[in-house]
Design goal:
Blueprint lengths: L1 E7 L2 E7 L5 H8 L18 E4 L2 E4 L12 E3 L13 H8 L9 H14 L5 H7 L11 H10 L11
Helix pairs in contact: 2-5
Length: 161
């Protein structure tokens, strides 16, 4: 067993872990931050995306020990300081970018990373960036619309594929 400490959503967090403990397990099981979903354990679905030191990572493929001393942001920390939805979360709601909601935390965290990197992506760039995130319900159309809307762009020309 080893001790790990990090900052999660702006608050100090620590715990005792086995060397094989995944970051997703540490967040969910020890910190009770269950918004980080685990859908595949193989880095295929993207439901576990969090930000580590400002970079989007799949928490199911990163050891908790690798996040020692890191700044970790999860979906629970994405809302505005007053608890209201941030622009991206609100766009997902407004444009019906979710159905069952299982993929939504990972989609939102991935989209936030995209918009940080590229504040005005094209529709093709959004679709390409989301390649590592699987949604079994929506067909991605409204997710793409939500991300485009959150970037301040028109969604009128986005065609369903």
């Amino acid at each position: 067993m080893a001790q790990v400490s990090m900052t999660v959503n702006g608050k100090a967090a620590s715990g005792e872990i086995e060397g094989r403990t995944l970051l997703s397990s540490f967040l969910r099981d020890q910190l009770n931050l269950t918004g980080t979903h685990v859908g595949c354990d193989t880095s295929q679905c993207g439901a576990c995306v969090v930000h580590v030191n400002g970079e989007a990572v799949k928490a199911c493929t990163m050891l908790a020990a690798e996040a020692q001393g890191a700044e970790v942001a999860t979906i629970e920390g994405a809302a505005n300081a007053d608890g209201s939805l941030n622009v991206l979360q609100q766009a997902f709601q407004d444009h019906h970018g979710l159905q069952c909601g299982f993929c939504t935390p990972g989609m939102v965290m991935s989209a936030a990373a995209l918009l940080k990197e590229n504040p005005k992506p094209t529709e093709a760039e959004v679709r390409d960036y989301l390649e590592g995130n699987i949604c079994r319900c929506t067909g991605y159309h409204n997710i793409v619309k939500a991300i485009m809307a959150a970037s301040g762009q028109s969604v009128d020309s986005i065609a369903a594929e």
